[in-house]
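By way of example, what follows is a protein record of this kind.
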Amino acid sequence: TPLNAVNVFSDDEAAVLFGRGSLAHLMAKAAIDASAYLQLQVIGLEEDVAGVAAAGTVALTGPATGSGTLSLWVCDTRLDVAVSTGDSADTLYHALADAANATLSLPVTASVATTGQAPATVTTLTLTARQKGAWGNDIVLRTACSAPGVTVTLTAMTGGATNPDIQPALDAVFAAGHHIIAIPWADQTTLQTLREHLKNTGNAM
């Protein structure tokens, strides 16, 4: 439930509460991995109604003239796809998309689309942030391929816009006395809102 602070004790519990691969899930996992006995509360926020999800693309050419491995990194998670001699770009597109979508803890989902009319069609793999907002522009993508005959062109994540307003969440926990508050958004408006909250809660009565 949005704006309701809940105790979270495990990675899996965060995934159930907030959705696997969500910002809340990934932040909770990182916190628990760093300190297994952490007393952790998480509060969810709805996406802004004007929010836009960031997206990046992977463009491939083929066919492969030898075997190797096609790799995609999303942040610090590496996905590997085996490449065999003769594999077409279309085969590799779908294999890479399947690998990404099978990794539910990624902050992105993958889709393959073909545009244009034959013989001038263009196929791309699009990676879209699971949640809307400018934060998605900071998702780091990298690629590599050791198979000859295959080239990879990567377009970084972009287009994400309008992070949610954190003020309602801060208001909901104003009197709780939390010692550490972590947020996933680093835009100026959000940081100024957090600064004012900390000033108000930290000032002596």
In short: The first strand starts at residue 6 and ends at 8.
